[in-house]
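hey
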């Protein structure tokens, strides 16, 4: 997705889109965006994608990334919501760039990004002789080659799928390149060694 600054200025003038200056990123009280597009079917035996079982509610999320913070590392246990955060952020960024209303509270502001890179999920393929690790690596190499100051990168479990020490070292090197390029990134990981790197470097 690409958008010029002129288009961003026009969006501010003609719509209520919460377009921020490049570098600012604020999400407030965001409820799962995909739910707003779901239709409830009374006769359906199975809930539609995005619907929750009766009695359960989605936990809204907040995310504040001031302009000076270029890299956010998200850690936590499995099923703790790391991937949901990344997917929600990516979807909200795309919705905002399309001028769609955001299911979020006042104060939510998202930048118009020139490039959005996403590495979430598992694209291993027996047919193409592609492992989980090599599939992730293809995406990450593209970010290293193409990401610049107007890029937003979302990466889930960076460096996963190989030896932990090698994966952590590779992840650190890639994040170093992102920071050198001026890109903004939100990354999830289980690698504890990356926490110290991010605190020092980001």
């Amino acid at each position: 997705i690409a958008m010029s600054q002129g288009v961003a200025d026009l969006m501010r003038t003609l719509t209520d889109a919460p377009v921020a200056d490049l570098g600012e990123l604020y999400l407030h009280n965001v409820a799962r965006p995909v739910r707003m597009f779901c239709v409830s079917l009374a006769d359906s035996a199975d809930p539609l994608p995005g619907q929750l079982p009766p009695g359960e509610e989605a936990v809204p999320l907040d995310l504040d990334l001031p302009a000076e913070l270029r890299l956010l590392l998200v850690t936590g246990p499995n099923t703790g919501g790391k991937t949901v955060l990344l997917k929600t952020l990516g979807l909200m960024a795309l919705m905002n760039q399309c001028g769609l209303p955001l299911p979020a509270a006042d104060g939510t502001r998202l930048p118009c990004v020139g490039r959005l890179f996403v590495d979430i999920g598992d694209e291993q393929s027996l047919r193409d002789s592609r492992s989980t690790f090599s599939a992730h690596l293809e995406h990450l190499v593209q970010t290293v080659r193409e990401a610049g100051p107007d890029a937003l990168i979302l990466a889930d479990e960076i460096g996963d799928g190989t030896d932990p020490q090698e994966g952590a070292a590779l992840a650190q090197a890639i994040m170093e390149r992102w920071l050198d390029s001026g890109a903004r990134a939100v990354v999830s990981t289980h690698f504890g060694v990356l926490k110290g790197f991010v605190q020092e470097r980001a």
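The radius of gyration is 18 Å. The longest strand covers residues 25-30.
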